[in-house]
# Entry
Amino acid sequence: MTLLDIKNMRVEFPGRHGVFTSVDDVSLTVAEGEILGLVGESGAGKSTVGNAIMGLLQPPGKMVQGEVILHGERIDQLSKADYRSIRGKRVAMIFQDPMTSLNPIETIEYQLVETILTHLDISREEAKKRAVDLLDQVGIPDPHIRIKQYPHQFSGGMRQRVVIALALCVEPELIIADEPTTALDVTIQAQILQLIKDLCRNRNLGVILVTHDMGVIAETADRVAVMYRGRLIEMGETDQIMHDPKEPYTRSLIAAVPPSNKKIDRFPKVAIEESDGNALQNFDLQGHWLGQGDAFDTSHSNLLEIENLNKRFVIQDAFFKRNRKYLDAIKDISFNVKAGETFGLVGESGSGKSTVARVITGIHTANGGSMRFAGMDLTGDVSAKQKSQVRRDIQMVFQDPYSSLNGRMKVGSIIAEPMLVNKLTRGKEERTEIVMDLLELVGLGKEAARKYPHEFSGGQRQRISIARALATRPRFLICDEPTSALDVSIQAQILNLLKDLQEELKLTLLFISHDLPVIRQMCDRIGVMRHGDLVEVAETEALFERPQHSYSQVLISQMPKFAK
Amino acid sequence: MISYIIKRAMQSVVVLLAVGLVAFGMFRFVGDPIDNMLGQERTDADVERLRELLGLNDPFIVQYWDFLTGAIQGDMGVSFRQGRPALDIILERLPATLELATVSAVFAMVMGILLGIYTAINRKGFVTTTILTTSLIGVSLPTFLIGILLIYIFAVELGWLPSFGRGDVVDFGWWTTGLTSWGGIKSLILPAITLGLYQMTLIMRLVRSEMSEILRQDYIRFARARGLTEKTINFRHAVKNTLIPVITVAGLQIGSIIAFSIITETVFQWPGVGLLFIDSVQFVDIPVMASYLMLISVMFVGINFIVDMLYLAIDPRLRDGKEG
# Structure
């Protein structure tokens, strides 16, 4: 039976530069017990569809046309108060990031009970009992104890379970899950998706699964709807869409997903794109300023040598040393990165892979072990001059392009800053010229220098980050999850850009990611980390074909597969 | 937890010692108390004898040490001017200042938080714009000018409120209060507003920007998606989260209200410790000045300590000693 019926939905956002149509003439249906995958890239309008169903469009956004029919009853024209009684009670929503979806300063119990009491006329005691049951149902162990805790005491996956429990509070008919597993590790992702599938079957719920991840869709959805720029361009059974897509856009979207089963040279790009990073071709980097960094000793085949590196954090401070509690973020790890190669570090969140990057760049100080960069001991006595040279030579691209750029500086100044700080240029003119060239190099164009970061999309911002990292003429670039906040097509562009730059500038890369297919495409050698230990280091193909360590085997078996 | 408290207490002692050191280092430049203490008919021998008696010939470090050893035993020295223990003089005047500071702090907090919440929820509109514009005037004018303006309007022109003093005061021996009589309350209104206006504006703007930020958070969107009422979302989820950073600033502001009261007390001739301090500076009454400064620093340190404890009470993430 049809649970939700959307007819000709059109959502507009009136703005200063005219009206922006976010959703254009979208019609779709969801049946009871069915999971509908809604895919598309960021800006395609898929989240807006979800928000419009909930009546939660961000002002000034407005649904100007169409109908939303829930169980034969039209809901889009309801009054504010009536709509509220539908939200949470009949239609529930799960957000992307479980870290930010829960109020940090209230207990889980408070948030659950509050929601239950809002919708149901039962006593507080009954509501509490129900809350415990809910936690139990979503697979949280010891619900009696855990319910008294605060969100920060839960891990990411557990928090998402809490979020799901909150969404299920009053047995809704429809759940809109907006990227429910994007922020989670692969093993947790598999569990959460399984939970959603089970709930859908057992309770006969309808689910709209909004995601950009084709692998998730392939494993979970019954039917798929593909959105592009506000329009629904293709809809069909999952198998059909995955294996026999009709539309060229769908085809290229599927092609852009990095294959997990083989290594390819370059990432295929999504056919319909807004900007392209082809500027590289007409660039002579060797003769350019960027190609003329510090002369360095090439006699070392290992650019970076790490031996028995340790880093511990104090997680609970105490007056007496023996009462302090520590977390060993990295334990005795050793590996080498050869000049010119891409070394991958893979592992789940909390495995210590980012800490490794931070220790190498000097953000954290190691508690033991040694690091040698181009033959220079970084952990011993290093002169200020050497230190600043190492800082120039090692640069980092951070994960989140939204928070790693200063929003109050123009892009031009952001990129010029490292040159200014390190006094690398002779003057303002030269600096400006290099900034322009860098922007061209990363495919943004000169005009970008005058704009502010917020005027750019996530992928474009990541290009700015890369340009900034290149501004000191580094030899070693550390990329900490550079694409995990980006769409597949943008991801493909950024990864291609990194590959090109590496080739042109003879860069050595340390590539950190939890995304196994991406790692497979990018890296020559890979280190697998778990709970601070480096459990295995192997050549890429060897690792994927014949993982030695039991944890590597689990990790590789858990990665969402979808064969093309 | 206990180690945290011990650590904080030790830090506080260091702060207090430093304040005293700086204060005693400066007293020598304030002037010579002897000029005011002895009349026209003094001899050089008199001056020298008194100097020796008061210990003014010692290096300031020694004077400071004497003050400290006395202070530990509860003896803060004897006022040069009044010849009575400095501590008694200050304790006599303290209720007036504390009453004024408390009332203006409450005024600043209550009004600041309420207006901040209102302007955060209703981001646009005539009332919000009016409040914000008026508050801007409040910050940009200096305290004494606001005081004089208020006196001119409400005391001189309209004649509604008294322009100076505390009005009728009830004395309990250890405490004096003006809050029990209408006259006392009337006298309190103008100085309290003058003193609290700046802090109110500051708190209001802080609350507004914090709350606007909080209202954009995912957990607020998720709360809406769960069908909670706007009232619950705004006043329970948003406000409580907003108050965490506000508490720090507000706490520090209470300290500065006591410190700022010097100006307000001068304008309104309020018989509190601020006015006492100004008089003492003119007379170079070192024991009183030293006691006042120590007292103010004890309060500052104490308030900061309470603020930190409040932080722990409100934010569960800090209780575990972990970062969010």
